[in-house]
Amino acid sequence: MAISTDKLNTLTIAEAARALRARECTVPELFEACASASLAQNTELNAFRELFSDATTDALIAAAQKQIDDAIAGGPTALEALPLMCGIPVATKDNILIDGRIAGASAKMLENYKATYDSTVAAKLRAQGAIFIGRTNMDEFALGGSTENSAYGVTKNPHDTGRVAGGTSGGSAAAVAANLTIAALGTDTGGSVRNPSSYCGVVGLKPTYGAVSRSGLIAAASSFDQAGPITKTVADAKILFNAIKGHDPLDSTTIPADFTYPVADAIQSQKKTLKIGVPRHLLEKGLDPDVAKNFEATLETLKAEGHEVIDIALPTSSYAIAAYYIINFAEVSTNLSRFDGIRYGHAARGKTLLDDYLESRTEGFGDESKRRILLGTFVLSAGYIDAYYRKALAARSQLATEYTNALAEVDVIATPTMPTPAFVIGEKSDPVSMYLEDIFTVTANLTGLPALSVPMGTVARGDKNIPAGIQFTAPKGAEDLLFTIGAAVTGETVY
Amino acid sequence: MATTDDVKKLAALARITVPEEKLAKFAEEFEAILGYVSKLDELVVPQATPLLPYTNVFRADENPHEIGKYTEKLTEQFPAREGDLLSVKQILIHD
Q: What ipTM was estimated for this complex?
């Protein structure tokens, strides 16, 4: 039985993969459903910077359909070998390089920058037959938490267009939430996959640092950056994560294939009920009461299903935002120093070569980029590097030890993903109040641990219901534990 | 920290110009941000706290891609070029 073609965009990866194999729909129909929904809604949401609809995309679609047809003709073994991502439209954040496409990081600096090669994540998806549907809006250079720092306007939350979609992968999360695509990729430096996933009511995974290659991502803060899936279900997050992960010779920080994690895969798959640690001391201040209520209710449900919830202490977490931002400023200012208007990117021309640099950088960077470049220059300067940067590294190390110790006692750690639901556009105008929103998310980046945000209901704001997310953090390499507990929250079965 | 002069000095080091009318706002924001992150001063970290085990990773300088494979794609992005060469302003000025 064919699925109504105007609803195909609402499918999950798992549903679409099944429908394509059962010939209930075709790759062109699936793509068309997403593309037309995107065309209809993008003017309002501003989720996409660009929709990829041309001969290059048509060729990807035709090749994927042929791969599926061949697999069907080849019988059960061929179908089994067909990648789940084959024929699935995927939106990619504007900082993920796709050969021949513009990758602009939603910054004026890279407005016309055309990628000269595929990022490893794009190459993997391409090899599996996924269809790139378009590049999504983000905070410029992945600096922000609301997509308000995009040089091309804010992305609006599909649940209430007066509110932000979160950030920095706001376009990816909004596109998934509004069914403009089947799934999306974001990148997460301090919560940039999980924050918009929480605000938009979708699932977002920040993988273990080194699980996914950073080759071909426009770098924000290299010791934090990880690409991750933004999807409609936990099962889909697992499918997309499996599609992009793996050691990569092009990224020396990726984890070798033969590396053994402390929590082995076999143990992860056997665990059906988990011990969940909750750092209560972090929830005492600054947490929205409605979000707190949903969080407690979700924990109660998990308890009723046989999971155990215990209090844990992570005292260094109170210093996490301070340590995170110092390191972020330092790494961002270093990474953004490559943009000088000489070889590529925005190129203003003045009287001298120095003027060329000054004018290109002054015109090409937005205020938040400038702020972080200057602060990074400060925390790395002689006389201040010990008090700021090196102290932050020590705090990071102490925090990592604290998390490792806590995760020896519990399977996962739970907090709300964000302390508040999505806020009204323009409401947070000072940088510090924006940074404080990251209290629960930055710890996974500081420690390198994987973390998953899944929807935990909605909170009422006026006549609208705004989503909230619960976040689970697991030991390194224990993404499967996150999928198990995430699925317990959403009521899914994950294989 | 965080006078408008400090902002100007950092901007010069980072090859950025902060316009006069924004200097005061930047200085005020820096004051607030540095004030917040200075809370790290309270944290007592044992002297011997080992940092995360970062190591440099090297690979042999071998197996290059064929010469010219990316030339056109890269030169296409140049703001100014002469053939396959990147054209820039004269660096040394002889007065």
A: 0.93
* Residue A357 near chain B (CB below 8 Å): yes
What is the full DSSP assignment across A292-345? HHHHHHHHHHHHHTT-EEEE---GGGGGHHHHHHHHHHHHHHHHGGG--SSSSS
In the predicted model, what is the mean pLDDT of chain B? 90
What is the spatial distance between Cα A487 and Cα A481, in angstroms, rounded to a whole number? 10
Residue B38 lies in a domain: yes
Strand partners, A226: A188
Question: What is the reported pLDDT for B50?
Answer: 65
- Closest chain A residue to B91 measured between Cα atoms? A353
Q: Is the dihedral of CA A234, A238, A244, A249 positive or negative?
A: positive
Give the count of domains, chain B. 1
Spell out the domains of chain A, with CATH numbers in brackets: 5-244 (3.90.1300.10)
Structure tokens at A165: 């979609």
Q: Among partner residues B13, B18, B49, which is closest to A377 by beta-carbon distance?
A: B13
Matching residue, tokens 């009723």: A304
Range of the domain at B28: 4-42
Q: Is residue B59 part of a domain?
A: no
- Report chain A (495 residues): mean pLDDT per 10 consecutive residues: 78 98 98 98 98 97 98 96 98 98 98 97 98 98 97 98 98 98 98 98 98 98 98 98 97 92 75 94 95 98 97 96 98 98 96 95 98 97 93 94 96 98 95 94 98 98 97 96 97 86
In a domain, B32, yes or no: yes
Domain assignment present for B55:
no
Q: Cα dihedral angle (A202, A208, A213, A215), rounded to 10 degrees?
A: 90
Nearest CA in chain B to A112: B77
Helix H or strand E segment including B33: helix B20-37
